[in-house]
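TL;DR need structure tokens for one chain.
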Amino acid sequence: MQKINVITLGCSKNTVDSEHLMARLAAAGYEVRFDSDRTDAKTVVINTCGFIGDAKQESIEMILRAVEAKNAGKIDRLFVIGCLSERYADALREEIPEVDDYFGARTWEGIIAALEADPSEELKTERHLTTPKHYAYLKISEGCNWMCGYCAIPLIRGRHISVPMEELEEEARKLAAKGVKELIIIAQDSTYYGIDLYGKRMLAELLRRLCKIDGIAWIRLHYAYPAAFPEEVIEVMASEEKICKYLDIPFQHISDNQLSAMLRRHTKAEAVELICKLRARIPDLALRTTMLVGYPGETEADFEELCDFVREVRFERLGVFPYSEEEGTHSAEKLQDDVPEEVKQARVDRLMAIQQRVSAELNRERVGRTMRVVVDGRQGDFYVARSEYDSPEVDQEILIPADGKRLFKGRFYEVKITDAADYDLYAEVIR
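>> reply
TL;DR here they are.
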């Protein structure tokens, strides 16, 4: 049985792509490994990220390390797929010719043919999971139509294409049969789901159908675009017990000047109205967002307005990124990158300091509260768990002292919060 090692870089959407590919490889008779530095696999596939500068550099460094291994005779075949090779395939072929072939994020049939993987339509909903078996990402669409000024995703992934609802249901049922208890819904914009297939947004209907699948306990919603947020999604989140009281909704900024420059398609007033509506209709909702600072033309007044917004809204989860110019985007072609790098980083640090205080305050408010958590694993003297308010890998953790007790990975427990840190909680098991 031929061995193959699939290395995945970048976001959870790449993770899903790799898992689909690995299922086809396994069906064709390969012995599949993933993200392994300790394998004797003679064929290596690197699924790359091409979104921002640091991610591109990480992908290039991984390719070069694999080339060294190939030159040393440790591997025989090397393929590069994904976002980086979607954007820069010609340049990569010229600069790194040792790679056997490059395939983009939208040319999966090429890598399937090159590796003689199983192309059967019946395998479309199969996955070879790389996450812990109790949770999995469910990618409901590909691409994006919004064309935000800074974002290269439409250039890489193309326009929005929804996965048919029946196909997603089948995939979710298969995941549940494998022991998956938590589905994490992902897309470039999850709220846009269905408009290309059904003529209207159908995320709410999809969520209702997924809630009916036996074995699924939690459904978590990521990457919801704020503009024209569907009213029916709020209704289903408020009424369905399986849907986590959690929403990842990237606002990016709040100054109307910056929102307009970013081509974000909503105003500050509309963002504030949406947040108020969400929190009123879905009590105890945890909001996660991301902010982009240092975008062309961002003034000190724009940034101060953003700081005030973060203090007032008190997001439960928040990430901050400095702007980096991406070739081919509106901002790269039409705007001048006029905020110095040191100012960008200072603004990142300042906004995160505000969020650190907010997070610490919110965490202290949870001390004494009882929560349902799922255990993700053990680290040293603690079991690491999450509540419905925390997504894996990106959010805080709930730490439970081992104290001779045995807790099981992937199992749900009732815990009482005993202490709080800035970004973590401590708890004891009740039952």
